[in-house]
Every structure is written in C-alpha cells, then in structure tokens.
Amino acid sequence: MAATAIATRRAGRRLAWGSPSVYFIALLLIGVMLAPVIYIILGGFRTNSQITTDPAGLPSPWKFENYLDVLSGDVFWREVLNSTITALCTTAGVVALGLMTSFILARYRFRGRGVMYSLFAAGLMFPLTVAITPLYILVKTIGLMNVLPGVILPQIAFGLPTTIIILVPFVRAIPDEIQEAASIDGCSRLGFFWRMVLPLSLPGVITVAILTFIASWNSYLLPLFILNSESAFTLPLGVQAFASQYSVDTAKVLAFTSLSMIPALLFFSLFQRRIVGGLTGAVKG
Amino acid sequence: MSRSDPESVQLARDPADGRTTAGSGAHVAPPPAGRRVRKGIGWPARLEIALMTGPTLLVFLSFVIFPVAMAAYYGFFSWQGYGPPTEFVGLRNYVLIFQDGTFLDALQHNAAIVALSLVIQGPAAVLLALLLNRKMRGQALIRVLIFVPYVISEVVVGTGWSLMLQGEGAVNSLLTHFGLGWLRNDWLSDPGLAIWTLFGILTWKYIGFAVILFLAGLQGIPDELTEAAAIDGASYWQIQRRITLPLLGPTIRIWAFLSMIGALQLFDLVYIIWGQYIASTAGTSTMATYMVANGRIAGEYGYGNAVAVVLFLVSLAAALVYQRFVLRRDTEGAITGGRS
Questions:
Q1: Residue of A221, A253, A276 lying closest to B216 (CB–CB)
Q2: Which pLDDT value is given to residue B140?
Q3: CA distance B261 to B253
Q4: The CATH number of the domain where B108 resides is what?
Q5: What pLDDT is stored for residue B16 in this prediction?
Q6: Residue B217 lies in a domain
Q7: Where does the pLDDT of residue A204 fall: very low under 50, low under 70, confident under 90, or very high at 90 and above?
Q8: Mean pLDDT of B310-317
Q9: Which residues 281-340 of chain B have a CB within 8 Å of chain A?
Q10: Least CB–CB distance from A126: residue in B68, B132, B292
C-alpha cells in the first residue's frame, strides 16, 4: 500500500493536464457508466405519472414519498440486516480459510500439494449454477433451509477457489529472506504466519474480502433456492419480491432498488483504493 | 479430514519463481539440499498442514465437490425430485439434450457472448485502461466511477435496464429527444437484436472489472521501460504496441479466461430481464437458463442435472483447451496437474 501511495504522490508532482480528447472520452465513458444508476436513483424521486409521460425526464417536482415509504417500513431494514449478516460471515469465513490454505499451498512442499491446488483451481470451473439442485437437497437434509447459515456455508465454499488463486501468489511473493530471518530469530512457522504472512498479504486479503463481500451482497441464485420465507430474505430477493408485488408502482420499485444498492456502493467507495492496490500485488521481491 | 499422505513434508520455497537465495555473498551457503536433511520437522509440519487445510477442504468438498458429483449422478435418472431417484435411464437425458433445438440455440447464444466478449469487450477494456493510465486529473475518481456498475447487484441492473429498455422506456424516449427516432427499437424482444442488448448490458456491467484489472497490470510495468523507449524516439502508440501490450499479456490472458468461463455460465441477468420463458424466443437463452427452465421449473430434476453436467463439461473443455494453448506459460500447473 505504501508503495502505491508513494507512486501516486510522485505522479502527482509532474501532473499535467494532458490532451482534451482524453478527458472527452473519459467523460463520455463515465456518462455511460453512471446514467442508468442515476436514472434509477432519480426515478425514485418521481411519480408514476411523471415516469409514464416522460420516461427519461428529471423529477419535477421532486417527490420524497417513495423513499420515505421504503425507509419507514421494516421490510427494507430486515433485509438489510439479513444481507449484512450473510455478507460479513461469508467474508470472514472465506478470508480465514482461504488465507490459511494459501499459506500452506504457497510455502510448504508436500506430496498432494499439486493435487490440492488443482482441486481448488478446478473449483473455478464449478459455478453454483451447476450444483444448485444437489446443493439445495443437501442444505435441506442438514436442516439449514430458510436460515442464513444455509446460504453462508455454500457461499464460503464457492468463494474459496478465487480466494486461493488470488492469495497464493501474494504469500509466495513474500521473500524467503524474511522467512529465514524470522526463523533465525526463533519464529516458528505458525508464528511466521501470524506475524509476517498476515500483515504482508493484507492488500490481497482486503481485495479478496471486498470482492467476497460484494459478491455475497449481490448473490441471487442461492438465496432464491434456500430462503423461501420472507423473514429470511436478503436484499436481492427483496428487490425482486418488491418489484413483482408493486409492479405497477414503478417509482416505488426504483426507490427500493436504489436504496438497496447504497450499502454495496458505500462499502466499495470506502475501500476502493485497496482494489487497485490489492490487484497490483503486495511485496515485490 | 486427516491428510496422511505427505511423506516428504518440508518447508521450502517454491521452485516456480526460480529465485535461488542460497548464499547471498558471504553467507556460508547451505544449499537447497541442506533443507532436505532436516527430516525432524516432518511431523509438526504435517500437523500444521492438516490443521490449516482441513477445515477448508471439509467445507469445499462437502459444499462444492459433493453437490457437483451428485449432479453427475442424478443426471442418469429420470427423477422428479420426490424421494431417492430410482428410474435409471442411462444416457437418455444426454441424448435428449443434444436433440433439443432449444438447447443448441442456448449453446449458440453462449458461444456468441464468449466471442463478442473476447473480440469487442477485451480490446475496448485495454484501450480504456491505456487511456486512464495516462497522467490526467481526476484519474482516481474516474477509476472508481467506472467500477460502479460492477458493484451493483444483477437484480438491480436487471430491474433498471429492463425498465429503461421497454418499448416506451427511457432509452427509446431519449433517442426521440435527440432526433434519433429511427434508432428506436424493441431492444428486449426483437430476436435479432436482443442478444446484442444483452451483450451491451454485460459489457456495461463487467467492463469496469476488466479495466481495473488491466490498470493494475499496467502499474506493474516499470516506467523506466517506456521512458527509455521514448528517449529512443518511439511514439506513444509504438510504445504501447511493442512494450505495454506484451507486458500486459499475462493479465489479458487471465481476464480472457475469467470472461470466457463467466460467459459460458451466464444466468442471473438473462433470468432477471427475460424471465424463464421469454429468453428462448428473444434469442438470449443460455445453457444455465435452459437448465433451470427445463429442470427445476419443469420438475424434471434428473434432466436438469444432466444439463448441468453438459454445462460443466463445456466449460471444462473450453478451460482445458485455453489452459493448454494460451495460459500455459502464465499459470504453471493450475489445472494441468501441478508439474512444477
């Protein structure tokens, strides 16, 4: 992280304005990327008749009832809570299990290591979609239907392959000299894991954590199969249920939809710096 | 979850990265072979390996591998989901799948999305990454903003876009406003157009990820190389073509791999926007929506699982071919068996 910060600062010093065409394309791009989001948010401030007469217009006058209605009901907040619990538990599980396994795969040599790595790499090939029916039966058998752990456990399992593929290079990139120095200083391998691997692979861990959190926050298919009772609904299910329940009330659907994306956007904008930094790789040897 | 197989447990650096640290100058070199002598660490290390990978393997095997294996098993049965499957039908489900024109259409749609992603989305993302990698103001903000669609859930994207693309929706209305009324279209239900609409929405949603990935790759390219080339009189485009692009190669190849697998397994957006029935008439159905429509919704769980197996085998075949011919030099031994 520090290296990135320094690099940015260094770039900042010789920052020139550059050519206008670059800004033009960048602005155009941002416009295209944001217009639909803005449409959804603004649509929530309009009435249905405004939307029908001029689908692409601005709110006039601005109506706050849609948002207030959604925010004052307890349905939205219950779904926010469910989504938050699911996403946090999934992230914690994926990071803890993924980092331990990546450590072993990156820095131990044992027979079966290649097989284990291939197993997880092959896991990238198994989408949830392929396994959804048997997974549904499995979750039902172990009695986790309609409760959040029934979504969390499979999500952790399906999050592991990506996590391990991303984290192994991070752990591997920690120079051997550091490990040798640590072991000369009397640090055990597990001590090395806690004191060196964890902090040094932090950028990778944060990247993985953000991606996992967002994936869980947005996940649709698994909750659709596992959570049938409305009290356990996560936000994506809630949005769909809301959209079909109020299918004629477009404005209210838009308000609900835009409120449901705020937490993920907020979370992302708080940690966005880490994404670029994390994907770049932590310790360059 | 006992891992008893490791016989030659030892702590060592991975040979893949090719660095030899033995003897940095005055260091009286215990060569790599020296480590091998320390057999004494064998058992504690084995315990560590078992403790630290055991829970992961347990979760992974029971919630990923076991269900996938069960899908393969159910695929040989005609089974409506009540009680254990008993009516063994051999390969009949598979024969039926490949005789069904609807499935072959879905397969074609998947193939089209893969091709369009690699040919249009990839190069577009590379160009955008090159553009955003130039020194300019507001760069950090731009990077965040183009990533926004990626962060938004498929349900929100699907709900929003289907409202906007309706016959009397915002897109057509905007086109009329700008005097482009002749461009008005039935974006979602015109069979010749819908797949392009789908591709457009997919690109909108996922290109931010590609750009961020490429930007990360670009940051890894030392400034010295491009500066040296510039001093030698290379033009901007020459530098990008001869230096940046080749060095970005590994990132591009990884992205192409992820994109290909994602396109083959596409489900959420199609299902949310086109629903389970309209997708095939609009020409946007995918193998996965076919699977859900003809499996769970039709109540034919055996058949659905057979489709899941086909979907998996298609992805696996694509992945192996790609791995064999393209990725080999980047990821040694990820799928090809860890011969390092």
A1: A276
A2: 74
A3: 13
A4: 1.10.3720.10
A5: 41
A6: yes
A7: confident
A8: 88
A9: 288, 291-292, 295-296, 301, 304-305, 308-309, 311-312, 315-316, 319, 333-335, 337-340
A10: B68
How far B57 CA sits from the closest chain A CA (Å)? 9
Domains of chain A in start order, with CATH, are 16-63 (no CATH), 73-280 (1.10.3720.10)
Q: Which residues of B touch A285 (CB under 8 A)?
A: 19
Residue B233, in any domain of the structure: yes
Average pLDDT of the residues in A148-170: 87
Task: Look up the domain containing B147 and give its range.
Answer: 102-296+304-329
Q: Do A97 and B56 touch (CB under 8 A)?
A: yes
Of B7, B128, B220, the CB nearest to A111: B7
Three-state DSSP string of chain B: CCCCCCCCCEECCCHHHCCCCCCCCCCCCCCHHHHHHCHHHHHHHHHHHHHHHHHHHHHHHHHHHHHHHHHHHHCCEECCCCCCCCEECCCHHHHHHHHCHHHHHHHHHHHHHHHHHHHHHHHHHHHHHHHHCCCCCCHHHHHHHHHHHHHCCHHHHHHHHHHHHCCCCHHHHHHHHCCCHHHCCCCCCCCCCHHHHHHHHHHHHHHHHHHHHHHHHHHCCCHHHHHHHHHCCCCHHHHHHHHHHHHHHHHHHHHHHHHHHHHHCCCHHHHHHHHHHHHHHHCCCCHHHHHHHHHHHCCCHHHHHHHHHHHHHHHHHHHHHHHHHCHHHCCCCCCCCCCC
ipTM: 0.81
Query: Testing the interface with B: which of A129, A136, A237 to mutate, by most B Cβ within 10 A?
Result: A129
Q: Is A104 in contact with B152 (Cβ distance < 8 A)? A: no
Say if pTM beats, i.e. exceeds, 0.90.
Answer: no
Task: Identify whether B113 is part of a domain.
Answer: yes
Structural tokens at position A22: 């670059």
The pLDDT of residue B200 is above 60: yes
Interface test with B, best of A23, A54, A89, A108 (most B CBs within 10 A): A108
pLDDT number for residue A16: 57
Whether A236 sits inside 8 A of B19 (CB atoms) is no
